[in-house]
Design goal:
With about 260 residues, this protein is an alpha/beta fold. The protein has helices at about 20-40, 55-60, 65, 90-100, 120-135, 190-195, 210-215, and strands at about 10-15, 45, 75-80, 80, 110, 145-150, 175-180, 185-190, 200-205, 235-245. The strands form two sheets. A seven-stranded parallel sheet has the order 1-10-9-6-2-3-5, with helices on one face. A hairpin with a 4-residue loop joins strand 7 and strand 8. Helix 1 crosses helix 2 (about 55-60) and helix 2 runs parallel beside helix 4. It is globular and about 45 Å long. The relative contact order is 0.19. 6-phosphogluconic acid (6PG) binds next to loops.
């Protein structure tokens, strides 16, 4: 029976606006990268899609941040992908390429994108194999140094949607599902992989997210009802980067 609650209380960091949120997330990225590269020679990140992380990716490409990161030691993976080609406007890979990768010197062999253009089941199986080849671990799941996540108003995260069979996945590392609401297939890392990470960070902005933030982090909340609420790093850390308007309905002692 998986542990329902993480060892440590999640860290909640509230920022004035998306720019300040991105700055704080970028500072965390720089610190984690330095530690991981020093101790393991590499920094592995699973990137989030959606619109909120774009500000972070753009900021990491600025001189102020890009010069603090040894990009040759960074390996970029994706937490989820839309089943579209890499040049498609909805592609999470394309979003990262435009916001970050085309602005920095980055080794192409360190880019590990999900093949959204392929048959979803094939793409999921191939990506799992790529993770197995890369992490070379006998553990039930690979341990990313950092997993970035967003949050949908329905409580979905990565491409783990309420009621989806992918939520029940206990052995596979990558899953695919048809999302009725979007009339589309999605590829996603599964909960065992997300919860095996050393650090998981949610980036959540906008007043539209305040009801779901309350349902997840508010007093008397029952977070396990939502996919995002099932993100509980087994031994790792969990941070919620929230803008003030996203946190409007919760009262928390600020950590940031
Ligand atoms: C995706 C994401 C998804 C996203 C949320 C929040 O591919 O769409 O990974 O989980 O993070 O839908 O999206 P916004 O940041 O755009 O609100």
């Amino acid at each position: 029976m998986p542990r329902l609650f993480p060892m440590a209380e999640p860290e909640v960091i509230i920022s004035r606006d998306p720019d300040e949120l991105a700055r704080r997330a970028a500072a965390q990225w720089v610190a984690l990268a330095a530690t991981a590269i020093q101790s393991r020679g590499r920094f592995t990140v699973a990137l989030s899609g959606g619109s909120t992380p774009k500000t972070l990716y753009s900021l990491l490409a600025t001189p102020e941040f890009r010069e603090k990161i040894d990009w040759n030691r960074v390996h970029l993976f994706w937490g989820d992908e839309r089943c579209v080609p890499p040049d498609h406007p909805e592609s999470n890979y394309r979003m990262v390429r435009e916001a970050l990768l085309r602005k920095i010197e980055f080794p192409p062999q360190n880019i590990h994108r999900m093949a959204g253009e392929k048959d979803p089941d094939t793409a999921a199986a191939e990506y799992e194999q790529e993770l197995r080849n890369f992490f070379q671990t006998t553990a039930p799941a690979p341990a990313f140094d950092l997993v970035l996540l967003g949050l949908g108003e329905d409580g979905h995260t990565a491409s783990l949607f309420p009621g989806s069979t992918t939520l029940k996945e206990t052995t596979r590392w990558v899953a695919t599902a048809y999302v009725e609401r979007l009339h589309a297939h999605r590829l996603s890392l599964t909960l065992p992989v997300i919860n095996a990470a050393a650090q998981v960070s949610f980036l959540v902005a906008g007043e539209g997210k305040s009801p779901i933030v309350k349902a997840l982090l508010g007093k008397d909340s029952n977070p396990a009802r939502y996919p995002a609420g099932q993100v509980r790093p087994v031994t790792g850390e969990l941070t919620w980067f929230l803008t003030q308007d996203a946190a409007a309905e919760i009262a928390v002692s600020q950590n940031g």
